[in-house]
Specification:
five-stranded mixed beta sheet, two-stranded antiparallel ribbon, single chain
């Protein structure tokens, strides 16, 4: 009989999985209350805040589970062809197109689209948040995406070297697990995705 996996990555993965059930209950009841119609202020606003927070928590659990699978050597990405410009535009839409300007020309890459889009978005958000910036540019050149500017203070966070941003740390791990690379070139973060 094989020994049970008692590693820390497995423990984190299990915790992320087990937290999904109570979270789904919270999200489900919040959605039910929202569908019931106007609850009056401030109740309506509180239910909408609970709904938004439960979605954000679900995303964080996804990130944590992905990181645990990568660290535990159990990451099995669903590889699909996708255009890099499409990934960049989706990431910008999620953060607000007034905060992330997208330019360039894409190319088809073979990645896990959901994890990669989430990762690009997280890297741009980390550059904004930890660099004290109002806006960044996400430039696409075939299978390479660059995010700029990356400030000296935000660089270690965006590179996943200084663990102050879960999204950025997981994004770097995802890109590398897919066979790509993440590097800093001056004030530009260069993300090369596998073709």
């Amino acid at each position: 009989m094989a020994a049970a996996d008692s590693s820390f990555p497995r423990l984190v993965s299990l915790a992320a999985h087990d937290l999904r059930t109570p979270l789904a209950t919270i999200h489900g009841f919040a959605q039910t209350l929202i569908r019931m119609g106007d609850l009056g202020e401030p109740k309506q606003r509180y239910v909408e805040m609970i709904d938004a927070a439960s979605r954000q928590l679900a995303e964080l659990l996804d990130e944590l589970g992905t990181a645990a699978r990568i660290e535990g050597g159990r990451y099995e990405p669903s590889l699909q062809p996708v255009d890099t410009l499409t990934l960049a535009q989706a990431a910008a839409t999620g953060l607000g197109e007034e905060r992330v300007r997208v330019s360039g020309e894409g190319a088809q890459v073979r990645v896990d689209p959901e994890a990669t889009e989430r990762g690009i978005s997280a890297l741009a958000q980390a550059a904004l948040r930890h660099g004290g910036l109002d806006e960044v540019e996400l430039h696409v050149d075939g299978s390479t995406l660059t995010i700029s500017p990356v400030t000296p203070s935000s660089a270690p966070v965006v590179l996943g070297q200084e663990l102050r941003d879960l999204g950025a740390a997981v994004a770097v791990r995802v890109v590398r697990a897919l066979g790509g690379s993440v590097a800093l070139d001056g004030e530009k973060l260069t993300v090369k995705l596998p073709e």
